[in-house]
């Protein structure tokens, strides 16, 4: 029954036009897979839907030329991508190599295929960089960490991935003062 409901939600979502800024990349953004049997229960934030069960990521996709990072919530807030989705880092994952293909379905990487990510107002541009990806393009980094979105957020203004611990590691929302330890 749960799969049927998830299928209907995905079907209904597919009938809605995506936001203008994400429209060009939605087709290239992979949908998260069914939850892996080995995923611990703590992989989903309390009160949030399981990000690996049929949710669609509706934020800027991996073909974005030069992603723009913005600040939400003032100086002590958190960083977002061009669509307003919060961005995250995994402890110890500096170049993106600790997040495999299955991980990237729940945690889509922020990738620049051409050019460097840009820092918006309130963000230290010196902390924005990139690391080469085996699949091509550049994985955007901030403060020395590869950054990602969280499929479970399902839209701008959500930070349900903050504090999630799953089989890949411990995840945190990126803040203006986030720096590699």
Descriptive report:
By secondary structure, the protein is α+β, with helices and mostly antiparallel strands. It has one domain (2-173). 11% of the residues lie in helices and 20% in strands. The chain is built from 2 helices and 10 strands, in the order H-E-E-E-H-E-E-E-E-E-E-E. The protein has helices at residues 2-15, 101-106, and strands at residues 68-72, 78-80, 88-90, 111-112, 118-119, 128-132, 138-142, 145-148, 165-166, 169-173. Strands 3, 4, 6, 7, 8, 9 and 10 form a 7-stranded antiparallel β-sheet that branches. The protein has a 3-stranded mixed β-sheet with strand order 2-1-5, with no helix packed on it. The longest helix has 14 residues, at 2-15. It is globular and about 35 Å long.
Question: What's the quick description here?
Answer:
This protein has one domain (2-173). It has two helices and ten strands; from the N terminus they run H-E-E-E-H-E-E-E-E-E-E-E.
> What's the structural domain tally?
1
Would you report the number of β strands? Answer: 10
Order of SSEs:
HEEEHEEEEEEE
Number of helices: 2
Query: Major β-sheet, in short?
Result: 7 strands, antiparallel
Mean pLDDT comes to 73
Q: What proportion of the residues is helical, as a percent range? A: 10-25%
């Amino acid at each position: 029954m749960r799969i049927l409901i998830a299928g209907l939600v995905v079907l209904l979502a597919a009938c809605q036009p995506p936001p203008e800024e994400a429209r060009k990349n939605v087709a290239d953004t992979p949908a998260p897979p069914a939850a892996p049997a080995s995923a611990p229960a703590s992989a989903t934030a309390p009160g949030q839907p399981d990000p690996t069960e049929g949710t669609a990521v509706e934020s800027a996709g991996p073909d974005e030329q030069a992603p723009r990072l913005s600040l939400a919530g003032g100086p002590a807030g958190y960083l977002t991508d061009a669509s307003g989705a919060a961005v995250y880092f995994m402890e110890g994952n500096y170049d993106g190599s600790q997040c495999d293909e299955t991980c990237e379905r729940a945690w889509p990487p922020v990738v620049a295929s051409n050019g460097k990510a840009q820092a918006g107002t309130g963000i230290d541009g010196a902390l924005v960089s990139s690391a080469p990806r085996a699949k091509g393009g550049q994985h955007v980094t901030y403060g020395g960490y590869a950054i990602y979105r969280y499929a479970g957020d399902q839209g701008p203004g959500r930070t349900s991935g903050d504090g999630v611990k799953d089989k890949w590691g411990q995840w945190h929302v990126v803040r203006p003062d986030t720096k590699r330890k």
